[in-house]
Design a protein that fits this description.
The complex is a heterodimer of chains A (277) and B (316).
Chain A lengths: L1 H28 L5 H19 L4 H22 L9 H23 L13 E4 L2 E4 H23 L1 H11 L1 H6 L4 H23 L9 H16 L4 H21 L4 H15 L5
Antiparallel strand pairs in A: 1-2
Chain B lengths: L1 H5 L1 H23 L1 H23 L8 H17 L4 H23 L4 H22 L1 H4 L5 E2 L13 H24 L1 H11 L1 H6 L4 H27 L1 E2 L9 H11 L4 H21 L3 H15 L3 H10 L6
Antiparallel strand pairs in B: 1-2
Helix pairs in contact in B: 2-3, 2-8, 3-8, 3-11, 3-12, 3-13, 4-5, 4-6, 4-11, 5-11, 8-11, 9-11, 12-13, 12-15, 13-15
The chains are: A mainly alpha (277), B mainly alpha (316).
Chain lengths: 277, 316
């Protein structure tokens, strides 16, 4: 039972790290970024490539992989997403989906289509309340909480965070103060992409790495964002862990239904959520 | 006398004649199997385009409705009756039924949430077919379907199948043409432009959106049922959510918001996926780049472009 809870918390932590970027991109740019799942997959693949360079030091490899995503996500922002401001949201979905098609094909071209396994980088189990748990999973849960606190401070205390929070309320008013809002939105986009890559890097040792790994995670993150409320940092945090628990409890009762149950919960929440979504 | 030809009905008969002639020309080029495939896909695109092109709601999980039709006709022929026409009717009814049931949840949303909630439902449907009810649906392996002969209507024979699907396409086109040029059709186009204003005019937009959604799911299910009738075999690929992009691409390249555009887009997409895929090894990348070009440079699609050049009224 405690094992199931711990598993749910791990998945919740990963989901939070990935979906916060999605939520921010949607809130700031009003764009549904399908390429988010691609960045997640690229993060995991870069880790595989960079691990030998980093002499199998997982932390160094992870940091390098996340940093390597910065130019990639900047290119996507500069040439695709920035052209989509103000056009119909359907075109944004289709264009970012096209980026996914191109990116997945590039991944297959560079790294091959077959799944690549990665081993647990820590490999130590911790005994806790009478159960043993891989230390790696504990680290993931702690990292998710640290990122949540860090982002809360970032949006309350720093100048960039304050500008973005204000622009979420009223973009034109912030622009009329002489602030280049799009520049700050680009920062947020790159930051969200880095978090997605971090999610990929952290989750890669638990699952196998394959070109389509992003699509299911992306769907789950969308569910998290829709349940938690768009661009609601606290709501995303709560809904990520809640849906993570849904997944692990369902997975314990009936394995194949784990991911589907998340969408059922999402449907129920959307039915009872008041007003237009 | 002249005014008779200017009404919507007169024009649509000319359109129908042109579409029928077009497929007759394609028949010797493509061969009969492929032509039937193309026609069925065009029906699917028409159903999708009612929702996307006319009402402005992008569904990212339209495979669910195609798959509903496909599995409904399969289960009907397996357990109830092997009469092909009744089975097709069962497929359409199943599509309408799923629209009635999940419609109220789905049409409340718009924009991104609409696309994603369709995708989520599609994922649930895929799971139900693949795992939960695999005892009845054959799971990953799928199952073969048999239909009885009905006099001269023997769907095992390819020319009969081709003629029948072509008739189905023309009928669907005619009905949707009637539908979209009616005041009702104008209303759903207004919902696409500005839903709030339509509400101000006193219309209950929810009901209109719901009915349009049901029509779209029924037509998609019709296409699904026809493809099972054609192949005689059903697999989970008929409900696979990762294939959702096919119909979006077809609608976009042909010209969303136009019925003729849907058919042109459907034929073009099928031609590309059938022929280009065997020449271009990086097919997915090609598709992605083509989609980007469509979104950034070519938003009205091929039919929109042609209609603009020829100064034809693109609306319809």
């Amino acid at each position: 039972m405690i094992n199931t809870i711990a598993y749910g918390l791990t998945i919740g932590g990963i989901l939070y790290i990935i979906s916060i970027g999605l939520s921010l991109t949607f809130g700031t740019m009003k764009i549904v970024n399908f390429a988010h799942g691609l960045i997640y997959a690229i993060g995991a693949y870069l880790l595989i490539t960079l691990l030998p360079i980093a002499r199998n030091n997982f932390i160094l490899g992870a940091v390098l992989a996340v940093l390597a995503v910065v130019p990639i996500s900047y290119l996507i922002e500069r040439f695709i997403v920035r052209r989509l401001y103000g056009v119909s949201i359907d075109y944004a979905i289709i264009a970012t989906y096209a980026v996914v098609l191109i990116g997945v094909d590039l991944i297959k071209w560079i790294w091959g289509a077959s799944p690549i396994p990665l081993s647990d980088p820590v490999g130590i189990d911790v005994a806790f309340l009478g159960i043993t748990l891989p230390l790696y999973r504990v680290i993931i849960i702690i990292m998710a909480i640290v990122i949540f606190i860090g982002l809360s401070i970032f949006f309350k205390k720093t100048m960039v965070g304050k500008i973005v929070t204000a622009a979420l309320e009223d973009k034109d008013a912030v622009r009329s103060l002489g602030i280049n809002v799009d520049k700050y939105f680009a920062y947020i986009f790159v930051m969200g992409s880095c978090l997605a890559a971090l999610g990929g890097v952290l989750y890669a040792p638990i699952t196998s790495v394959h070109p389509y790994m992003g699509s299911m995670v992306l769907l789950l993150s969308f569910a998290v964002v829709l349940v938690g409320g768009l661009c609601n940092i606290k709501g995303t945090f709560v809904s990520a862990f809640a849906l993570g628990m849904v997944m692990s409890v369902t997975g314990r009762l009936w394995g194949p239904a784990a991911e589907t149950m998340v969408f059922v919960v999402m449907g129920i929440v959307l039915i009872f959520k008041p007003g237009e979504v | 006398m002249m005014s008779l030809f200017k009404t919507g009905t007169g024009r649509s008969f000319i359109d129908i004649a042109i579409i029928a002639a077009g497929f007759m020309v394609l028949l010797p080029i493509l061969g009969i199997n492929r032509s039937t495939d193309f026609i069925i896909f065009c029906i699917y695109v028409l159903g999708f385009n009612i929702l996307y092109g006319f009402m402005g709601r992008l569904s990212f999980g339209h495979m669910l409705y195609l798959g509903t039709g496909a599995y409904a006709i399969t289960l009907f022929s397996e357990y109830i009756s092997q009469n092909p026409l009744l089975a097709i009717l069962a497929g359409i009814c199943a599509g309408a039924l799923i629209g009635v049931i999940i419609g109220p949840v789905i049409v409340r949303t718009s924009g991104a949430a609409f696309a994603l909630i369709n995708l989520a439902f599609n994922q649930v449907g895929y799971f139900l077919v693949l795992v939960a009810f695999s005892k009845y649906t054959g799971g990953e392996d799928g199952m073969s379907v048999h239909f009885s002969k009905m006099g001269f209507l023997d769907f095992g024979q390819k020319p009969v199948m081709f003629g029948f699907t072509l008739l189905c396409l023309l009928l669907t086109y005619y009905l949707l043409k009637k539908f979209t040029s009616s005041p009702y059709g104008i209303l759903i186009k207004s919902i696409k432009e500005n839903e709030t204003r339509v509400k101000f005019l006193g219309y209950n937009t929810f009901n209109y959106k719901w009915i349009t959604f049901i029509i779209s799911t029924s037509v998609a299910a019709f296409a699904g049922a026809l493809s099972i009738l054609n192949y005689g075999y059903v697999t989970p690929s008929f409900i696979d959510p990762s294939r959702a992009v096919e119909v979006i691409f077809a609608a976009l390249i042909g010209g969303s918001g136009s019925l003729v555009g849907s058919i042109i887009g459907g034929v073009l997409y099928m031609a590309m996926s059938n022929y280009l895929a065997s020449y271009i090894s990086r097919w997915e990348m090609f598709l992605g780049i083509a989609l980007l070009i469509c979104v950034f440079r070519f938003r009205s699609g091929i039919w929109g472009f042609v209609a603009d050049k020829l100064k034809i009224r693109a609306a319809a």
